Amino acid sequence: MPERFVVCRVDELPEGQRKIVEVAGRSIGVFNIDGEYHAIRNACPHQLAPLCLGSVSGTSPPTDRVGDYRWHRQGQIIRCPWHGWEFDITTGQSLFNPHKCRVKHYEVTVESTRTTRQIDSTDPDPSVETFPVAIEAKEVVLYVG
Fold first, then answer.
1. Considering the entire predicted model, what is its pTM?
2. Please, are residues 29 and 22 in contact by the beta-carbon 8 Å criterion?
3. Which residue from 27, 76, 85, 116 has the fewest beta carbons nearer than 10 Å?
4. Can you tell me the distance from the alpha carbon of 140 to that of 145, in angstroms, rounded to the nearest whole number?
């Protein structure tokens, strides 16, 4: 069963940003791509470069006509900072050989947390009212295992 690790609050990882965390002895990059969260191992399978420090961009898909270039998947492709190998952040697959070369991809979810506590006054007057206060937040949660 995978272990659960809270990475951060949702508002701490805006769209287009990444956060590198150390979890269970592994360096893992967590990415917010258009409001969806993805995580990959921070090690390029080529020579173990810190992959998640690489540039994030898109790619040009193959076309039927010479000179017909289109750009797509902006923000979903990461390029290794050492040798330029490219990987799909959403799956971990390499762009040049997706069936044989990949980087480990981890499950990431957004989960609501709710804490309730009693706010008490230090005033000894018994007529002072106290109220329970609920605090709700959304957290980015990584599952490793």
1. 0.79
2. no
3. 116
4. 17
The DSSP annotation for 96-115 comes to S-TTT-B--EEEEEEEEEEE
Write down how long the chain is: 145
Can you tell me the distance from the alpha carbon of 53 to that of 100, in angstroms, rounded to the nearest whole number? Answer: 23
d(CA 43, CA 49): 5
The token pair at 51 is 């992959």
Amino acid code (one letter) for 58: G
User: Quick one: which of 78, 75, 143, 137 has its CA closest to 108?
Assistant: 143
